[in-house]
Amino acid sequence: MFITLITETGPGRGFPVQGLITLLVVAVIFYPVQKKVREVARRRRRERWAQEGLLTQEELHGDDELSPGGPEQDSPPVANPTQPPPAPPGEDRPA
To answer: Does the pLDDT of residue 42 top 70, yes or no?
Structure first.
């Protein structure tokens, strides 16, 4: 069966011009489309990176600038070492 298929199609003669033309048509259509898709993806990626960079900068430095009293108001209160700690509830402390 395989032998009859080979003999029916005949041996290849010369260079397949139709295959070359098909390849050129595909390349002419595919290359500009592929180039445009890459440019759009590159532009969107750079915009996203820039936006993420701005958000990161705002997270790192924006909290200090947004609070009205600066970073001191956002920090937890620190105990004053010159005053004794407050007495627990229910205990009277001598004055």
So the answer is: yes
